[in-house]
Design goal:
Two copies of one chain form a homodimer.
Chain A (H helix, E strand, L loop, with lengths): L1 H10 L1 H7 L3 H28 L4 H7 L2 H9 L7 E2 L2 H11 L8 H23 L11 H23 L13 H10 L6 H20 L17 H4 L1 H16 L23 H32 L6 H17 L6 E2 L1 H9 L6 H17 L8 H15 L3 H5 L5 H17 L1 H21 L3 E6 L6 E3 L6 E2 L3 E6 L8 H11 L12 E5 L8 H16 L3 E5 L3 H7 L4 H4 L4 E2 L2 H8 L7 E2 L11
Parallel strand pairs in A: 6-7, 7-8, 8-9
Antiparallel strand pairs in A: 1-2, 3-4, 3-6, 5-10
Helix pairs in contact in A: 1-2, 3-4, 3-12, 3-15, 3-16, 3-17, 5-14, 5-16, 6-13, 7-13, 7-14, 8-9, 8-17, 8-19, 8-20, 10-12, 10-17, 13-14, 13-15, 19-20, 21-22
Chain lengths: 597, 597
């Protein structure tokens, strides 16, 4: 019995949290839940329209998915639901199969949600959640920056009252701008004025909102102060009232059915499933990376842990719930989760309160959407995604590791030119290619003895002692297929006497301290190198072989083919190989001062 | 003037070779050229039929392409021309666009040759020939083994006199076997008998040919003795004579037009070019890998060098020549190049002699093909590709590096099930994924001091001294996107006190001797890890940072965020951090004998 309870607790971390629930937590969770709920309503409606779905689909995405996730997640403050990036990916995927805002579109979206959920569960089952590590920082930031611009371009039409629907996404920025340019005549001046005014009000709120009386003391930085976040909801109420009273003629959201979502059953159509699967995989990966990184950031501030396996399970369940409740793919929301944390949420109970706010909205407040202008929602989306974009950190890292900057801008440009899916795939491919390229041309340092110490350093960076018959080279990479050829050629060259150099090299010592494994191509390379050197009467010695590599070499009779010896340390090797007559040579001249210490 | 000559010599290595040509080289080159020519004729015709082309296309492929390659190559004995693997890839590619042996088929093949040549030149121009390193040993061996079986299956029909044409290749073995099973009734007993007898004779030749009077003394191993290689030509003459005399009713090659090839112009059709391009890339890569590795093997036996750039140029030119002379994509032939070497060829002049043999064949010997049975050619192909297959070396390496065995069999199975292109792509993908997987879960060794030496070793492998407040961990991998999460979590765990352990860890020392670079994801990881440890009052120290990584860290103000210090060596770090009071602990017990020395 006890074991069962324990097993249940393990799968529902919320049980453990609730057992230790204290009375004073309640007021915090209550306030945070209400605040987050107030931000959630306008965001949910705005992102639903961005995804090409009716307004209520966004609200449904904040109900079952959010609550189920809260019960399963190992994070205490993570809020899942509709997010801008997932909405963009849904629009780009489903837009190829059906016109936006149609019933068929909604049906395909539920299939997509189900696939996303099942893929997340599959990743958990196969324990291959590590695949998301392929989405490196520069890929994600390039992707998010590109997507932010795509989304902003897509919102320019609703912001200026054109049509009232978003253009086809996923074809890149150029297509979006062209379709916008073609309909400039249709600009609704009232809507544009309303939209631009909303943008200005929201920007002002973000900038100066925290200067208003401080209702909460969270110790957070200015821009994450809760008050700066409730701009959207005030705006929504204010502008809706304005439009309703003045009866301005701008595109409106229109009637939204009141009441809770009913059960939807995703259709099974093998062809459709097959077509959607690759996109579902990409959405699942992006949704998981987003949720996990938000959850991890919040947890690390409170010395808590996020369990990646549990998060796959929870996010998978949230998406399956979305599929069966007429919603669309959900992910962890950066803005709402941090608002939740900043407003003092202590447990997932705040998500339940937030859910209650959504229920209340669906039951009694849907009439206000009738007068809600599209232009205001577009302004809300633009401000939200503008905050996601971040070019500064990339530029900051440009001198640290240049390939990351290349990856970032390749991803960014591919998203803008080819859409989100193309951008993500290109980004991962570019980061892999650049990584392989780096390890295919490894750094090889010729080292010498540092004074009379047992330490050895690069002859180009330090003044060290070398011995003319012995070249000691440290290869800073494992020996494997991508670099075997290069390493062989470069090591063989080291044994060739330089013009005028005398006497010739007799020993090549390869320092293996950075060789973490050797694959069969690398092993062939070592054997071939030994033969090549043997023809020049140079013996090949190895030293500083690590445990795992020594275990590997134990299987291949190294004594039979290696012409030299295996030494434990570079020091041992130098002591043994320089014992014969010869004179030491100082790099940088006999009496040069150390170049670096 | 001198500079021009030098420039020309640089692009035509043959000029340098011919300048130092000695009279005694001539007899060697003459004999080798004739021997190779005699093997080339039957192989060329057999591989042409395998590729779905008329017999003469194979002979043309040994003329302009072979001679032009000989003039440009940096290898002295490499022979390019029709090869089995390229023939299979041509059949699989062009078979999708036109029926085999048709004029349209030949037209598409010349386009493919031109693309292969241009791609090789492009790789040279962009200096990205290193891309072939992605085809690791296990991928190539898996690919060749799978292709060998595909080819053997494809030859079972002509061997047994069915139809006389090869079945559609590229659909995998199963399709080949099914189509064969469906036409069992059409077996021609005479052809089957002839084919099987040919197989037996060739196998016997391979086994015992070298026991015949030794005409050449090459010092090579038994199976590469030249006499074992001329089996095919004797067989061809013998069986053709037999068929001609006995007038047995078996499928024959039929009339082959006499005379030299005329100029062909590849058609330009954008749609077709686009369709063929991916396959052309794969053929180019495989052809280059094959040629380069054969050339390299032969060169290394003679202390010569192969220039990879020059080889791209030469092989590209050979394929362009193939496109304009009615031939098909060519590559370095393993069997003919080693026969050339074993027969004593000293310079590319032997290839010119071989070309003369082909010219003579085209001018005067085409009538013999009228009576040449398909079954004999099928036997020649089967024996040739049987020799290419090699499972032993893979199994030999299975204990050395297991992922390579997985890669080999994944490639092998994909070739058998999905055809050559699918197999190659799957093989490269599997090898990349396994490589990333390995470096995503790096080996992390906790080390201690070896006696009173300045050397530090894994506490699990050696009896070493450790100090309770300090954990020193050597991470055997660079810090980058694929492993940042795992490394962070595992290092953080090391700082958590074990149950009952007392006192707690105060310092975590990360030994960076195997960290070859850090990307921006890795840098974020280090910063996050520092923060996590700081909350547990553990300082993070680094040591043994290599030059390139130190240069990187110089750009990111490490002093501002690192809670500990940067030490030069592990020894320095231990001396500094263990200076305070505390007692040393021996791994394996205070008085334990060293576990390993």
């Amino acid at each position: 019995m006890r074991a069962i309870t324990k097993g249940i607790s393990r799968h529902f971390p919320v049980i453990g949290v609730m057992r230790s629930y204290r009375r004073e937590d309640l007021s915090h969770d209550l306030i945070a839940g209400i605040v987050v709920g107030m931000l959630t309503v306008p965001q949910a409606v705005a992102y639903a329209l961005l995804a090409g779905l009716p307004a209520e689909a966004g609200l449904y995405a904040c109900l079952a998915p959010m609550v189920i996730h809260a019960l399963l997640s190992s994070s205490r403050q993570l809020i899942v639901g509709p997010v801008a990036i997932a909405a963009l990916m849904v629009a780009s995927t489903v837009g190829e199969h059906a016109p936006a805002y149609s019933d068929a579109y909604l049906g395909i979206t539920t299939v997509l949600s189900l696939q996303v959920g099942l893929i997340l569960w599959l990743l958990r089952l196969l324990q291959v959640g590590g695949i998301v590590n392929l989405l490196s920082h520069p890929v994600i930031s390039g992707f998010v920056n590109g997507a932010a611009i795509l989304i902003i371009v897509s919102q320019l039409a609703p912001l200026s009252g054109i049509g009232g629907t978003t253009p086809r996404l996923g074809d890149g920025t150029a297509a979006g701008l062209v379709s916008l340019a073609g309909s400039l005549a249709a600009v609704n001046p009232a809507a544009l004025a309303l939209g631009v005014a909303s943008l200005l009000v929201m920007a002002a709120f973000r900038r100066w909102g925290s200067a208003l009386p401080r209702l909460w003391r969270s110790g957070e930085s200015v821009t994450s102060h809760p008050l700066t976040r409730i701009g959207p909801v005030l705006l929504l109420v204010d502008r809706t009232a304005l439009v309703a009273i003045l009866v301005v003629d701008v595109p409106l959201v229109g009637s939204v059915p009141a009441g809770l979502p009913s059960l939807t059953l995703p259709v099974f159509d093998a062809g459709l499933w097959w077509d959607l699967a690759p996109n579902a995989l990409l959405i699942a990966l992006v949704a998981y990376v987003e949720s996990y990184s938000v959850g991890k950031t919040l947890a690390s501030r409170q010395r808590q842990r996020i369990d990646s396996h549990q998060e796959l399970l929870a996010l998978g369940a949230a998406n399956v719930a979305a599929a069966f409740s007429g919603a669309y793919p959900v992910a962890g929301s950066f803005s709402r989760s941090s608002l939740n944390y900043a407003s003092g949420a202590r447990t997932p109970a705040s998500a339940l309160v937030c859910g209650a706010v959504i229920v209340a909205t669906l039951l009694w407040l849907t009439p206000i959407f009738v007068h809600l202008p599209h232009a205001v929602l577009a302004a809300i989306v633009i401000v939200a995604v503008y905050e996601l974009a971040d070019f500064r950190s990339v530029l900051r890292d440009r001198r640290f590791y240049r390939p990351d900057v290349v990856t970032h801008f390749a991803t960014f440009a591919s998203v803008l030119l080819g859409g989100v899916e193309v951008g993500l795939v290109v980004g991962v491919a570019v980061s892999l290619v650049l990584f392989m390229r780096g390890s295919a041309r490894p750094h090889i340092a010729v080292v010498g003895r540092l004074g009379d110490t047992p330490h050895f350093r690069n002859v180009e960076r330090y003044t060290v002692k070398t011995w003319p018959h012995l070249v000691a080279a440290r290869v800073d990479e494992s020996f494997y297929f991508a670099n075997a050829d290069t390493v062989e050629d470069r090591l063989a060259e080291l044994a060739v006497p330089q013009p005028g150099q005398e006497p010739a090299v007799k020993h090549l010592l390869v320092i293996m301290s950075a060789v973490n494994f050797i694959d069969s191509t690398g092993l062939e390379m070592l054997k071939r190198l030994t033969l090549r050197l043997e023809k020049r009467e140079v013996s090949l010695h190895l030293c500083e072989i690590k445990g795992p590599v020594r275990d590997q070499l134990g299987h291949v009779n190294i004594d039979e083919w290696l012409t030299g010896e295996v030494f434990r340390t570079t020091d041992d090797a130098f002591n043994a190989l320089t014992a014969a007559a010869g004179r030491w040579v100082w790099s940088g001249g006999e009496d040069a001062a150390p170049k670096e210490t």
